[in-house]
Amino acid sequence: MTLAPAPADWLLEKSQQIPRGVALTGEQTLSYEELESQTSRLAAGLTTQGVRHGQIVAVQLESAEQLARLFYGTLYLGATLLPLDPALERGRRDRLLATVGAHCLIARSPSSATGVAWIDPATPLVKAGDGVAACTPRPLAGDGIQLIIATSGTTGEPKGVQLSAANLAASVVSSGQRLELHGDDCWLACLPLFHIGGLSILLRCLAAGARVQLEEGFDPERIWRQIVQGGVTHISLVPAMLDRLLRQSAGQTPPATLRVVLIGGGPLSTTLAQWAHDAGWPLCVSYGLSETASQFATDCSPRAGLVAGRVGLPLTGYEVAIGAAGRIRVRGPAVMRGYANVAGVLGQGLTQGWFETGDLGRLDEQGRLTVIGRVDDLLVSGGKNVHPAEVEERLMQCPGVVEVGVAGRPDPVWGVILVALFNGEVTVEQLTRWSQQLPGHLRPRQFIRTGKLPRNRMGKLNRPALLALLDQ
């Protein structure tokens, strides 16, 4: 795939090459010609609100459609978008805005950060661009920062990951080579657009001239109905979403039109993967981060997800290595320009172009990457390193377990003992007996049956909240 250097150019090209091709469906249907026209007027509307080329526009909105349109608008205007989780607490939000140097905030309430202008999202010019003349596009240069993604910040202040237009283009090219997205395809987007996994869908479809089916949140009944209708060829899910869709489908095989079910955002259990394979779902298990502009390793083989933690070969353009401490390291043209900082210095968080993740991993002889788990989650029990994800993966194989989370409880003899919090039809006694087959250092010493486990909006297990639940 050969692309123009700036994502804004892709919209202009597609509006000329396939003007009547469907670009976006959701609350309304837009062709590429209509999307370009509305985006041009929206960009002009933003200009009337004081937004200029090269400025950073923060957006904190619930509406996926509104955020998508503002993303296209900032591409067109040559501004940098900072999409924010609507649930991000105001104080942490405002500190992030000050750190990245945001010029304005489009949200329901203003920011207390110095120098950040507020734009009401109900302003008609911002909402639709109605009655405003079109403007001339001013795409950012390849090295211009097109997007800043806020890391989740579950244990500290969120960081701003700076991604250039060239980073985003490189990611789209690499992804397209592995996933084969075509102009007549449709990618259903139900991931939050303030995450790189959600916004990447918009970019991939824009580059390929494909259609985005944009969803406001995740409704398994509605999404399964759309899959059954046969129009969806690609869908991105986190494991918890896959689980709910499998339950919704009640064993029914999806139509052959569905070619790619891209799984990311957290570890996929082999039990869930086997269930999906048995039901005929075409899984592609991926691994990526905001810092790598989304996926950089993906396994679309017939056994994808059936080996715990294996995420396949790196995509074209990415170099992957394992550091001395066992951490996964990656570099390539899609790796971020660095974390945003008050001084505006590029390269923060990188060492000679390498980004060292917070995940432990290993590479096999064929170059396939296996993700073991987060470094910060590692427990030491009886002098042995134990990763909760490995124990959870094994316990999920016990019949009747629906969810399980493993935490460490301080112990004067062992350092920590493993405690498993779980739910499902299995009893504490049954799970205790079943676990006797596990190696001693991977066997929890206590099992607690509980309700639904705490997860973040991407479906990842919230380990700090799990520890708090254990304390209760």
Automatic annotation (TrEMBL):
All residue ranges annotated as the AMP-dependent synthetase/ligase domain in the record:
16-339
Q: Which residues form the AMP-binding enzyme C-terminal domain?
A: 390-460
What are the protein's GO molecular function terms? acid-thiol ligase activity
Gene3D superfamilies in alphabetical order: 3.30.300.30, N-terminal domain of ligase-like (3.40.50.12780)
Read off the InterPro entries from this record. Answer: AMP-bd_C (IPR025110), AMP-bd_C_sf (IPR045851), AMP-binding_CS (IPR020845), AMP-dep_synth/lig_dom (IPR000873), ANL_N_sf (IPR042099), ATP-dep_AMP-bd_enzyme (IPR050237)
- One Pfam family, short name please? AMP-binding_C
* PANTHER family to which the protein is assigned, alphabetical: LONG-CHAIN-FATTY-ACID--COA LIGASE (PTHR43767), NONRIBOSOMAL PEPTIDE SYNTHASE PES1 (EUROFUNG)-RELATED (PTHR43767:SF1)
Name this protein carries in UniProt: Uncharacterized protein
Q: Which organism is it from?
A: Sedimenticola thiotaurini
